[in-house]
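Notes to self after the call with IL:
- keep both proteins in one doc
- input above output, always
- annotate only the second one for now

Protein 1:
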Amino acid sequence: MLSRNAPCAKTIKVFTGLIVPDLERRPIDEVRRAIRAMDELLISIDATGSYNTNSTDFCHTIGNICGKGKYESIKVEFYVNGILSTMEDVFKEFNRALDLANELWAENLNIKQ
């Protein structure tokens, strides 16, 4: 087991905000996909795994589990529109999309918010 001060040996890079040819998946499937990504990286000879997603469930799972427990040797890097970011930045970007959708919805129903 690595000490908390030891450098992480592996990195998962999560790219969001890009056009992602993503299949429709249930939220539980995205959580499972995140765990599978971490498990595969643990046994891989590769030092880095890269994933493209716009799934909040995938990002939340990766962001909150990497660096802990059996995944403590994995660090996570988030990229928003290709720029190295934080998990907070990722969710700000997701929220911007929801805000835009709400504005469009309100405009189409002539509702002032």
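Protein 2 (the one to annotate):
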Amino acid sequence: MSQVRLYLDEDSMRRSLVFALRARNLDVLTAAEAKMINREDDDHLAAASALGRTLFTHNTADYCVLDQQWIQRKRTHSGIVVAPQQRYSVGEEMRRIMRLISQRTAPRDAMPVGVHFQLGLGQRVDRLEAEIADLKRQFIEFKFE
């Protein structure tokens, strides 16, 4: 099985979160490491996709719109994980990311292209697993209680 590889944009690349994720052997690349500081959101998504990385951001509104624009243009990406900014401690955010990834680790060809995850409150991941086959636009929201 291949492991999900993350790209953290400028909004989400807190050093403490990067350190916590890497301490758990997660492959993480930050926008700073990729020399992508002060770039447009579309550039970040394109860079993450070119590298086969799932983009992690706190910029929920812009990336949800961008995801829809990419779908309309028939462009694919390696996934977007969005989480509300300032809602979680670093430890809680790291645990939720790790739980999400443990649910989604799969061979690359088994993953839907253009998957969109959301870390938030509400629905459970297992409830959404049954709905994946019905998705027409390859848009999935994962919310944790």
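Annotation: Strands lie at 6-8, 28-30, 54-57, 80-82, 116-118. Residues 6-134 form one domain.
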